Amino acid sequence: MEFIDLSTHDEIKVIDAKAFKGCSRLTEIVLPRELEIIEEQAFAECLNLKSIVFPATLKKIGDYAFANCVKLDSMSFSARSMDTIGQYAFANCEALEYLRLPSEKIDRIGHHAFIDCVGLKQVDLPSKIISTTPFIFARCNQLYEFSIHRESYYYIIINWNISIPSGYCNY
């Protein structure tokens, strides 16, 4: 199994599309402290990736960036806000049980961003999401708890087109 530490490589601002795609030996990666963008499919199909910490500088996670990382059970966002989480970005991350997104703001979460995260039980959403798309948490059948902030102006669509208005629970 393999651990990669890029934390001292401050010159890296972008991880290119498919850069680590299919790296089945990769179990953990520490991203560069100044990283701003993770492009499409950058870590897709890293079947043994278990843990990742996103730096405070991160602005965008591309489409399918972590799709099919079936053992990913821990991710942490240091950023207080982000621009984009792409469509299908974390699709089929089966081991993920708890998700705490950046605390203040995400401009856009793409459709099906967390589809088929079948182990997902709890989600803490930021206080403001500018734009959402349908079925962000589709087929996350164990999902039972959302923390939604009262000042949020959005809705979430789950599984069968159920919308949850802002301020519904745990604010």
Structure commentary:
This protein has 171 residues and is mainly β. It has no helices and 15 strands. The protein has strands at residues 2-5, 14-15, 26-30, 37-38, 51-54, 60-61, 74-77, 81-85, 98-100, 105-109, 122-124, 128-131, 145-147, 155-158, 162-165.
Can you give me a brief rundown of this structure?
By secondary structure, the protein is mostly beta strands.
What value does the Rg take, in angstroms?
15 Å
Give the overall form: globular
Percent of residues in helical segments? under 10%
Structure summary, number of beta strands: 15
| Topology order in helix (H) and strand (E) letters | EEEEEEEEEEEEEEE
From the N-terminal CA to the C-terminal CA, the straight-line distance is 40 Å
Q: What are the low-pLDDT stretches, counting only 5+ consecutive residues below 50? A: 153-171
Strand order in space, largest sheet: 2-4-6-8-10-12
Structural class: mainly beta
Number of helices: 0
Largest sheet: 6 strands, parallel
The mean pLDDT is: 84
